[in-house]
Amino acid sequence: HPENDYLGIEVHRPGVGRLLAALAARDIHNVRVSSTDAVEVLGRQVPAGSLDCVQLYFPDPWPKTRHHKRRIVQPAFADLVARALKPGGRWLLATDWEPYAEHMQEVLNRHPEFDNLAVTGKYVERPPERLLTKFEQRGLKLGHAVFDLAYRRI
Question: Of residues 60, 96, 115, 148, which has the active-site annotation?
Answer without folding.
Answer: 60
